[in-house]
Amino acid sequence: MMTTVHIERSLFGLTAEGSPVLWTDLPMGPTGAVHVADGTALFISNAQEHDATLTLQVNSLTSESVGEGFVLVGSWPFSSCLGTLVLNTVNAAGSIEFRLAPDSVYTMHVWRKGGESAQERFYGDLGGVTPKTGLEDYLIEFVPTSSTQTYATIPRTQSRSHPPVDETGQRPANWMG
């Protein structure tokens, strides 16, 4: 499935309906282009407001490459919760015509094209052009890992609603959130 996402304030999210985590609760710090927890993902672009192409797909095996110019940003466990995905932007959210098997765990691979130079192009050649398009493309590949696990068993990343804890149940001394 391919769609256009209108990225505002360098942010957009993808949430499985039924996820206990809000996309705005995930860390928005300066490190990492993607943050994931319990069926919710936050994507941080290097450019401000612009339109990006977003492709979502399910594959039985992880792709070695997905196209010229695409770079693998990372891979994370992702719970499908109820199976329906919602595309979140700063000013809107809505279900999209892309479904995962309910109550399943996937490995979510995020590929991005043009992301590293998006900010330079945003302020450079496209400075006065609106709407800004073609700065970056995202491809998100879901590879099934299990159909019996639920989101409660996925390792969490740190977020405001789920801060990290050490083996004693205490937050790390350097935790900010």
Kindly summarize this structure in a few lines:
By secondary structure, the protein is mainly β. 3% of the residues lie in helices and 44% in strands.
What are the SSEs and their pairings?
Elements: E1 2-7, E2 11-16, E3 34-37, E4 40-44, E5 50-58, E6 70-79, E7 84-89, E8 92-99, E9 105-113, H1 118-123, E10 133-146
Parallel strand pairs: 5-10
Antiparallel strand pairs: 1-5, 2-4, 2-7, 3-4, 6-9, 7-8, 9-10
Q: Could you say which overall geometry the principal axes of the C-alpha atoms support?
A: globular
Sketch the topology as an H/E string, one letter per element.
Answer: EEEEEEEEEHE
Mean pLDDT level: 75
Task: Look at the helices and sheets and give the structural class.
Answer: mainly beta
Instruction: Report the major sheet.
Output: 5 strands, mixed
Seen as an oligomer or otherwise, the chain set is: single chain
Strand order of the largest sheet: 1-5-10-9-6
Number of strands: 10
Give the helix tally: 1
Helix percent band: under 10%
Radius of gyration: 16 Å
**Low-confidence segments, ≥5 residues, pLDDT <50?**
147-167, 171-177
- Terminal-residue CA separation: 35 Å
